[in-house]
Amino acid sequence: MLYSKIVLLALSLSSVIFFGGILFGWASLQLWLIEEGQYVNVCEGHVPKGGCSAQLSQLDMVFNAGSISLSGVTLLVGLYMDYFGEQATAAASGTFVVCGCVLLAFAESDGFDSFIPGYMCLAIGGCFTLLSSFTVSFTIEQKYQAMCVSASSCLFDASAVVFTVFYEVHVAAGTSRRTMFLAWAVLGAVVYLGQIVAWGLVKASQEEGRGEGPAAEEGEELALKDHVQGASKVEIAAEEKGMGEFALGTPAQPVLEVVPTVLPMNERTLKEQLCSYDFVVLSAFASIQMLRANMYICMNDQLLDGLGSHDQAKTFSSIFSFVLPTAPLFIPIIDFSFSRFGIANVLQLCTAVGIVYGGLALVPSMYAQLATFLFFVMFRGYVYSSTGVFIAQVFGLATLGRVTGVANTICAIVGLLQYPAQYVTNSLLGGKVLVLDLLLLGLCVPLLPMVARLKSAWDAQKELDPFIASPHLSPALPPTEEYGAMDMGIISSATYSFRNITPTLKPMSGSRPGSLPGTPEGGTMIL
Fold it and tell me: pTM (2 decimals)?
């Protein structure tokens, strides 16, 4: 079983780096297409070396169609994944990726013009690929889950370098676009078919491991012991509030099983999850931080132009393009942060790193921007990793695709603000991007208290009963006994049901009438 999980993880990460976010390497592919003379027929008069404006506009439509498809289909992809499962998702990923590569291989602007549908297929296939890689993290030990999600997120970001490699191979060896994309289609077919087979082996091993036996009985005894310990914690809390006491733990006294009537987050319905404070924090954090990241990439050239000569700005822009895909280098640091500090603190750390890069961008020095590049790449790695880990560990596998889809859709809607922001900067502020950077930096301010409030809720809930804490708050507990996070507003009045699992129930003297009824189903106590 371990071997099949390792193979599945390797194939999943390979699919992300090879096919996940390759559409973001559009600059190199666009340069290649201009050299081929694609859409040159729309130009009038002399055609400059870098292409005419009409040609560039036509090529921009190809990239815009792909980027819009990536944002627009996320929710549909999430629904598909939640309802049809991992193997069907891997099959859909491979289908879209292979079709996209084949369409781009045979595309010609003056003949079979399939650039737009081909790029859209690559974008949709990349979305399927990323969400599918998150589900792989649930097949490994929980202590490695954050690292797996972080690796998928960072490799998705780094996959933009694929088209750069394509173009460099073309320049060095004269390899045609058709040959490169057909070879990539074959690679995709092999990788995704391997994933489908590996998922089948993992699921078969998991079903075999669910059999009855001494290990299962021992696990039930441990679970019963944990519930009794949890009940003891509730008894202490009840005594502190003057609500009486009840008997526990001895053969002559009843053994009570503590059942939270407030469902754990990962056991709630999708509607309840989307209405929770946890999701509000997730949406606000992801939307603001991704808007900041996208805006910095868009305005980086203008920022550099204002700090030195055009040639110097061009050199530093090339350095930034080279540094941008290096987020995987920060995976060990990001994984250490999750294992050492927990999700809430990592969100705060991510915001702090974002403030650092935003502050450095305000420094009127070209060479100071080298440090800005470094912190920005780290920031991007933290943003994508923390949102992925948050969704996986707090909301759980059952709604992973749909929660991710809704969150990404909200991010896409908020991301539309970058267009009016660019217009205001260029038209009304005379291209002063430092003003925009300062405004974006200010968006970090409300995130700090929001995340702090969520962390205090998780800490209070963990103190009340560690068996209701989120998985990342009690990593020592087996996955089958971990519960999701509760809402902030519920922490102060958590409701528990006490179910009698012995033949009789005998409350001790001093207990409040009605707090522990002597019925087999028990009653409730409000803390």
Answer: 0.70
